[in-house]
């Protein structure tokens, strides 16, 4: 997706790892965490099997982002598709999650 590492701090068995947009490195950070909680793992597997995204990101140019990520080897499970009020694409993050990229249609 093009994120860059922002924070990477370890203390004993614990690690705090975040990424941010290279265009806004001081903006919103996304925390990446281990999925070692059995209840969370069960939930993750269930929504993946139902083809439900674990997270959604919005973009102003879905087609350009799709082409850029696909060229970098992203595994899309849904190419850009028109749906009610938006256009979406979905990719597999290879860690058991689906990520939806959404471009809202302008009226």
Ranges where pLDDT stays below 50 over 5 or more residues in a row are none
User: Overall mean pLDDT score?
Assistant: 92
Would you identify the CATH H-level superfamily of the largest domain? 2,3-Dihydroxybiphenyl 1,2-Dioxygenase, domain 1
Number of domains: 2
CATH class of the largest domain: Alpha Beta
Order of helices and strands: EEEHEHEEE
Outline: globular
Q: Helicity, in percent?
A: 10-25%
CATH fold name of the largest domain: 2,3-Dihydroxybiphenyl 1,2-Dioxygenase, domain 1
Helical segment count: 2
How large, in whole angstroms, is the Cα Rg?
A: 15 Å
Q: How is the biggest beta sheet arranged?
A: 4 strands, mixed
Count every beta strand, where a strand is a DSSP E run of 2 or more residues. 7
CATH architecture designation of the largest domain: Roll
Give the strand order, joined by hyphens, for the main sheet.
4-7-6-5
Distance between the termini: 28 Å
Structural class of the secondary elements? alpha+beta
Strand portion: 35-45%
């Amino acid at each position: 997706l093009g994120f860059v590492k922002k924070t990477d701090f370890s203390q004993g068995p614990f690690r705090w790892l975040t990424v941010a947009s290279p265009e806004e490195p001081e903006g919103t950070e996304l925390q990446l965490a281990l999925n070692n909680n059995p209840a969370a793992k069960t939930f993750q597997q269930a929504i993946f099997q139902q083809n439900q995204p674990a997270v959604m990101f919005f973009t102003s140019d879905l087609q350009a982002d799709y082409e850029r990520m696909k060229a970098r080897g992203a595994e899309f499970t849904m190419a850009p598709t028109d749906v009610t009020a938006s256009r979406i694409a979905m990719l597999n993050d290879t860690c058991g999650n689906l990520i939806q990229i959404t471009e809202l249609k302008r009226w």
